């Protein structure tokens, strides 16, 4: 009989994506019919269970807008000032707004001439403008069709001669359907929104309504605005407050190790003061989850799985991601706290395995960093196009102000102990096609397991353990790939 050399070496094994596969099961679910709707936090539901990472080379407002329009959620990074963050949240929130708010409406002054108004509309890129007096009262509406030369309007006439003065207006509680019907019925393109005293408060446009209709799966708040998350430090209550006031839907308490007394105290304090949901991370064990379930609206999992992470090699600590997710989910699922698997996802198969392990949604960085919507320029190296992608614990990112994620004081340049690298990732084109591949692959996994919803899939899915021979068999093998597939690149091994 063999004694272990030391009890210290009687250790459990932890698994990651490549160690497991989903066991195929009898199915009556066609992949196209699999419903990916899920909960990312207590009060936020998304149409596809996918989040873009809070990293300065992944998610700013452009990414967050695109993610929400296509059914997921973007989480704005926090390597920016509070003012910049508030502005970024505002951009997401106003992107698909039904009612353009007063401040942003191009209006004409009744004193202006037809020519002046025409020039102003051309400059601002709008096709019409409410004519409003200094009190804010709506006197009429002018559109470029009222000004076209064949109507023989004299360009020096005051705008009041050319405008339509019987204005169709709407009240502030108008919904998209009613606004559409109103414009359709009167064959008009825009409707000023007024209060009880006929004072202008905003504008609804047909263009805006049609744009909203394009995004059937969009994730919106109660007011119809796109949803977004934002990363905050547990030690920056003022940033959390500002994000909450600016309308962020979820605050992500953004740390590399949330199973830490100070982090939990800070997070708990923030959660007790803000309206927004509060998701706390990252953790990777059952015990950590147990400390969070009584106050967190969601728990984010990942200690070192990320593509640009060096946490595990630098610190010697970490937890392979499938085990980390399964452990956290064991506790969190019992308390109905959603779980987000963050990092290490290279393929759609990894994403759906994370859900099988117990996650409700997944967060990705490298997968999206090469898209048009990610911040940063496309660069060409050796004839191939790339975009920059860097860890938030890399020297470059920490220098731009994020060092407290890794719990370090502001160091001198050579004192940084980074836990991430700065890299380049292949340029990929539009986010929409990446999301399409990711979601389609996940639906396919649900089809193989025979589950039509995420919750059914979490129940029904089972793993098998894969040997290294099995792992080699899973990938394209013994061939030379001649055409790139949109969802598989052996590079990302
Ligand atoms: P992927 O694999 O999707 O991972 O690129 C994105 C996630 O990685 C985490 N992250 C880091 N982890 N050092 C780390 O150890 C870093 O510098 C770093 N930057 C980001 C983060 O959780 C992100 O969502």
From TrEMBL:
<protein>
    <recommendedName>
        <fullName>Inosine-5'-monophosphate dehydrogenase</fullName>
        <ecNumber>1.1.1.205</ecNumber>
    </recommendedName>
</protein>
<feature type="binding site">
    <location>
        <begin position="389"/>
        <end position="393"/>
    </location>
    <ligand>
        <name>IMP</name>
    </ligand>
</feature>
<feature type="domain" description="CBS">
    <location>
        <begin position="99"/>
        <end position="158"/>
    </location>
</feature>
<keyword id="KW-0332">GMP biosynthesis</keyword>
<dbReference type="InterPro" id="IPR015875">
    <property type="entry name" value="IMP_DH/GMP_Rdtase_CS"/>
</dbReference>
<feature type="binding site">
    <location>
        <begin position="254"/>
        <end position="256"/>
    </location>
    <ligand>
        <name>NAD(+)</name>
    </ligand>
</feature>
<dbReference type="GO" id="GO:0003938">
    <property type="term" value="F:IMP dehydrogenase activity"/>
</dbReference>
<keyword id="KW-0129">CBS domain</keyword>
<keyword id="KW-0630">Potassium</keyword>
<dbReference type="InterPro" id="IPR046342">
    <property type="entry name" value="CBS_dom_sf"/>
</dbReference>
<comment type="pathway">
    <text>Purine metabolism; XMP biosynthesis via de novo pathway; XMP from IMP: step 1/1.</text>
</comment>
<keyword id="KW-0560">Oxidoreductase</keyword>
<feature type="binding site">
    <location>
        <begin position="302"/>
        <end position="304"/>
    </location>
    <ligand>
        <name>NAD(+)</name>
    </ligand>
</feature>
<feature type="active site" description="Thioimidate intermediate">
    <location>
        <position position="309"/>
    </location>
</feature>
<feature type="binding site">
    <location>
        <begin position="365"/>
        <end position="366"/>
    </location>
    <ligand>
        <name>IMP</name>
    </ligand>
</feature>
<feature type="binding site">
    <location>
        <position position="307"/>
    </location>
    <ligand>
        <name>IMP</name>
    </ligand>
</feature>
<feature type="binding site" description="in other chain">
    <location>
        <position position="304"/>
    </location>
    <ligand>
        <name>K(+)</name>
    </ligand>
</feature>
<feature type="domain" description="CBS">
    <location>
        <begin position="163"/>
        <end position="222"/>
    </location>
</feature>
<feature type="active site" description="Proton acceptor">
    <location>
        <position position="405"/>
    </location>
</feature>
<dbReference type="Pfam" id="PF00478">
    <property type="entry name" value="IMPDH"/>
</dbReference>
<comment type="function">
    <text>Catalyzes the conversion of inosine 5'-phosphate (IMP) to xanthosine 5'-phosphate (XMP), the first committed and rate-limiting step in the de novo synthesis of guanine nucleotides, and therefore plays an important role in the regulation of cell growth.</text>
</comment>
<feature type="binding site" description="in other chain">
    <location>
        <position position="306"/>
    </location>
    <ligand>
        <name>K(+)</name>
    </ligand>
</feature>
<feature type="binding site" description="in other chain">
    <location>
        <position position="309"/>
    </location>
    <ligand>
        <name>K(+)</name>
    </ligand>
</feature>
<keyword id="KW-0658">Purine biosynthesis</keyword>
<dbReference type="InterPro" id="IPR000644">
    <property type="entry name" value="CBS_dom"/>
</dbReference>
<keyword id="KW-0520">NAD</keyword>
<dbReference type="GO" id="GO:0006177">
    <property type="term" value="P:GMP biosynthetic process"/>
</dbReference>
<feature type="binding site">
    <location>
        <position position="254"/>
    </location>
    <ligand>
        <name>NAD(+)</name>
    </ligand>
</feature>
<feature type="binding site">
    <location>
        <position position="473"/>
    </location>
    <ligand>
        <name>K(+)</name>
    </ligand>
</feature>
<dbReference type="GO" id="GO:0000166">
    <property type="term" value="F:nucleotide binding"/>
</dbReference>
<keyword id="KW-0479">Metal-binding</keyword>
<feature type="binding site">
    <location>
        <position position="475"/>
    </location>
    <ligand>
        <name>K(+)</name>
    </ligand>
</feature>
<dbReference type="InterPro" id="IPR001093">
    <property type="entry name" value="IMP_DH_GMPRt"/>
</dbReference>
<comment type="similarity">
    <text>Belongs to the IMPDH/GMPR family.</text>
</comment>
<dbReference type="InterPro" id="IPR013785">
    <property type="entry name" value="Aldolase_TIM"/>
</dbReference>
<feature type="binding site">
    <location>
        <position position="474"/>
    </location>
    <ligand>
        <name>K(+)</name>
    </ligand>
</feature>
<dbReference type="GO" id="GO:0046872">
    <property type="term" value="F:metal ion binding"/>
</dbReference>
<dbReference type="GO" id="GO:0006183">
    <property type="term" value="P:GTP biosynthetic process"/>
</dbReference>
<dbReference type="InterPro" id="IPR005990">
    <property type="entry name" value="IMP_DH"/>
</dbReference>
<dbReference type="Pfam" id="PF00571">
    <property type="entry name" value="CBS"/>
</dbReference>
<feature type="binding site">
    <location>
        <position position="419"/>
    </location>
    <ligand>
        <name>IMP</name>
    </ligand>
</feature>
<keyword id="KW-0677">Repeat</keyword>
């Amino acid at each position: 009989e063999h004694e272990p050399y030391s009890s210290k070496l009687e250790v459990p094994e932890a698994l990651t994506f490549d160690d497991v596969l989903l066991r195929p099961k009898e199915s009556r679910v066609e992949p196209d019919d699999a419903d990916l709707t899920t909960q990312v936090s207590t009060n936020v539901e998304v149409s596809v269970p996918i989040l873009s990472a809070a990293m300065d080379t992944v998610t700013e407002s452009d990414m967050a807008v695109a993610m929400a329009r296509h059914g997921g959620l973007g989480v704005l990074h926090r390597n920016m000032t509070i003012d910049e963050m508030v502005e970024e949240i505002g951009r997401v929130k106003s992107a698909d707004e039904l009612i353009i708010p007063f401040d942003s409406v191009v209006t004409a002054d009744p004193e202006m001439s037809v020519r002046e108004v025409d020039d102003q509309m051309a400059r601002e890129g709008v096709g019409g403008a409410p004519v409003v007096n200094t009190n804010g009262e709506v006197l009429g509406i002018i559109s470029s069709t009222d000004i076209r030369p064949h109507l023989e309007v004299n360009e020096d006439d005051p705008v009041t001669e050319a405008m339509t003065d019987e204005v169709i207006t709407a009240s502030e509680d108008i919904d998209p359907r009613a606004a559409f019907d109103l414009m359709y019925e009167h064959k008009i393109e825009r409707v000023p929104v007024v209060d009880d005293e006929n004072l202008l408060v905003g504008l609804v446009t047909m263009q805006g309504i049609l744009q909203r209709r394009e995004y059937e799966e969009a994730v919106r708040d109660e007011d119809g605005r796109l949803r977004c998350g934002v990363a905050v430090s547990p030690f920056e209550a003022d940033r959390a407050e500002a994000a909450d006031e600016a309308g962020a839907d979820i605050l992500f308490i953004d740390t590399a190790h949330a199973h830490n007394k100070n982090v939990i105290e800070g997070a708990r304090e923030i959660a007790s003061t803000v309206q927004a949901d509060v998701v706390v991370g990252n953790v990777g064990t059952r015990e950590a989850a147990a400390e969070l379930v009584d106050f967190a609206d969601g728990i984010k999992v990942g200690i070192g799985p990320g593509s640009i992470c060096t946490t595990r090699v630098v610190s010697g600590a970490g937890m392979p991601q499938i085990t980390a997710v399964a452990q956290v989910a064991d506790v969190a699922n019992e308390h109905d706290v959603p779980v987000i698997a963050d990092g290490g996802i290279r393929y759609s198969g990894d994403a759906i395995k994370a859900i099988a392990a117990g996650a409700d949604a997944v967060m990705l960085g490298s997968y999206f960093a090469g898209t048009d919507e990610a911040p940063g320029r496309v660069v060409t190296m050796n004839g191939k196009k790339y975009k920059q992608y860097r860890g938030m614990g890399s020297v470059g990112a920490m220098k731009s102000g994020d060092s407290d994620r890794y719990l370090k004081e502001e160091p001198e340049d050579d004192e940084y102990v980074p836990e991430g690298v700065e890299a380049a990732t292949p340029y990929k084109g539009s986010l929409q096609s990446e999301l399409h591949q990711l979601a389609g692959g996940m639906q396919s996994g649900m089809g193989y397991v025979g589950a039509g919803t995420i919750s059914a899939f979490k129940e029904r899915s089972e793993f098998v353990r894969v040997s290294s021979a099995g792992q080699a068999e899973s990938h394209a093998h013994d061939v030379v790939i001649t055409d790139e597939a949109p969802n598989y690149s052996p590079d990302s091994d």
